[in-house]
UniProtKB/TrEMBL annotation:
This is Exodeoxyribonuclease III. Keywords: Hydrolase, Magnesium, Manganese, Metal-binding. It comes from Sphingomonas tagetis. Residues 4-248 form the Endonuclease/exonuclease/phosphatase domain. GO terms for biological process: DNA repair. Mg(2+) binds at N7, E34, D147, N149, D247, H248. It comes from the Bacteria.
Amino acid sequence: MKIVSYNVNGIRARLPRLLEYLAEQQPEVVCLQELKSANEGFPEAEIREAGYGAVWHGQKGFNGVAILAKGGDPVERKRGLEGEPEDEHSRYIEADVDGVTIASIYLPNGNPVPGPKFDYKLRWIARLSARARELLAEERPVVLAGDYNVIPNDDDVFSVRAMATDALMQPESRQGYRALLAQGWTDALRTRFPAGRVWTFWDYQAGAWQRNAGFRIDHLLLSPQAADRLAGAGVDKDYRGREKASDHAPTWVRLRV
């Protein structure tokens, strides 16, 4: 069972690339982030024609998350996180697919630091951690997949100095991510590549892709029951180099059925 996290950076703009990916890779599940589309603008017909059912939580022009499942509809469990009722950002959706609970997550960027956006990022991590603890208590296979906007370690970035002041690498951001892992989650990509230096994002600016100046911010965290079934993890890097591609590459985990 291949489960993919893919920040598409605008689903309408990247729809040809997404459909291309689905056709070529045929993953069982794809978690999308940064749809930048209201619910009514989600391309359900095109995705169904490609053989996938979907649930989505859209927002016009910003954010937005979805879960696609090959050959059927994901069974939605939850959209949004508790703890901040006034928060209208579409950043979390959760569904069951073939006995696995899967969440698609788009964690706030948090820049500039310091400031209200960074404070919101830290509160959001705390809210995600509360939901993650609830999911662990269910003692079932769970995958928390998404763009976490956190660079966990120094070897997860092309240049520590270049990103030192960025919200993605602040000690508080990293501590929030590590506290989440400490609950009992397994970072699938880190498990497969313990030495790091595996990127999932390359900026459009300054020739980052051409220089391979990337970093790792797309993560798939596994509950113990999912980690027991871990068969592989990786990044489909080549898709970042295609015409009009997203600045993220599809990042995946494979679980034994």
